[in-house]
Design the sequence.
């Protein structure tokens, strides 16, 4: 199954509906004018034309509705056709995607397919869309908007440094020790209601912007360094300036001087 096939099949019906609506609008203007002028002969004629056009419109709408209802949306999701075509559209449009059915990452978004209800989720937001290409366009537009949004890398790294210091106090580690970024996230968003507004994907996106910003130290001169981990579960996947994936697991802030 392919939504594009359905889309092509409904185009003639859509044009018929459009033409009928245009005719009705034109006839309505004529009828209004004839009513004002007392032109009974033409009024009767145009009212009959409106009746015939309305009947044609109703028939076109029924045919259009029957065509759309013949599309088995549940099977389209269940058999994986939607997912396959979504992934193909990602490749065509240059949208990085990772994951396996039914959960994917299109950095920094998390995409989930709800097969049972034929729903799509972009992060926590439900998206009503059965056209893979259109959905990928939505994702790409969102990514471009996020990338253009203002971001103060220095402010973010200072906040990250404060969370790092708090983590050192809690864990008893020495200054300069590596701390997992996933642990620092919990200090940045300590309560569930905070994490709802600033989830880990948003945190990963800010890390990516810091990573590509060129900022190398905090306002008080503390340099920082990201590190990897043998435990990929702890690593946070980001995309660098060239769109290549990088895995950041830890960070350390080196005392100034």
Sequence:
């Amino acid at each position: 199954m392919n939504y594009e096939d359905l889309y092509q099949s409904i185009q003639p019906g859509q044009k018929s509906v459009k033409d009928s609506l245009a005719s009705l609008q034109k006839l309505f203007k004529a009828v209004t004018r004839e009513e004002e002028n007392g032109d009974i002969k033409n009024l009767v004629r145009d009212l009959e034309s409106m009746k015939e056009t309305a009947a044609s419109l109703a028939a076109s709408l029924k045919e259009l509705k029957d065509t759309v209802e013949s599309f088995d949306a549940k099977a389209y999701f269940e058999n994986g056709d939607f997912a396959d075509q979504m992934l193909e559209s990602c490749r065509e449009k240059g949208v990085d995607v990772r994951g396996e059915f039914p959960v994917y990452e299109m950095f920094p978004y998390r995409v989930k397919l709800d097969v049972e209800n034929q729903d799509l989720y972009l992060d926590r937001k439900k998206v009503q869309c059965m056209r893979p290409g259109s959905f990928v366009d939505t994702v790409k537009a969102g990514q471009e908007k996020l990338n253009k949004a203002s971001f103060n890398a220095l402010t973010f790294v200072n906040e990250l440094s404060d969370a790092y210091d708090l983590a050192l106090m809690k864990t008893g580690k020495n200054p300069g020790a590596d701390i997992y970024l996933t642990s620092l996230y919990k200090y940045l968003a300590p309560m569930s209601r905070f994490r709802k507004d600033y989830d880990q994907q948003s945190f990963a996106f800010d890390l990516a912007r810091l990573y590509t910003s060129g900022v190398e130290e905090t306002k008080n001169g503390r340099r920082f360094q990201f590190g990897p981990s043998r435990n990929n579960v702890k690593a946070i996947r980001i995309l660098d300036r060239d769109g290549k994936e990088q895995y950041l697991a830890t960070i350390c802030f080196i005392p100034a001087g």
